[in-house]
Prior knowledge:
By secondary structure, this protein is α/β, with parallel strands linked by helices. Helix content is about 15%, strand content about 30%. The protein has a four-stranded mixed beta sheet with strand order 1-4-2-3. The chain is globular, with a radius of gyration of 15 Å. About 20% of the residues are buried.
Amino acid sequence: PYGSRVRLVQAGVWSHATELTVVDAPYRDGRQWSQQYRERQSGEIAVISTIDVETLLVESGYPRISILKMDVEGAEGVVFGSNFERWIDRVDNIAIELHDDSYFGDCTAIFSKAIAGRGFKVTKHGDVTLCRRS
């Protein structure tokens, strides 16, 4: 029903364009939806390519993101760990599940640092952190 308003992008979201492989250790329940990925090393097989949020925004043709919803099993630590400065001020609302027990470390601290001083009012509802620009 969305016709030409939708474009499929077969990629994972990351802080920059790269290739990923699967993290060897199982995460949480070890099921497919809780799989974690990391940048591939030389000689490893890539299982997915990535794209950064800025590139998605530019390619969309829109100047802003109304709602950025993210649940990426810890990779939010990568997305908000670097290169976010180029696009974060063009996001009006963020709904994010933060994973502090992931391969990527304390994602709450990384995310909080990224949005600090950028005009977001932050509330938490269950596992989801909601950030609304004031």
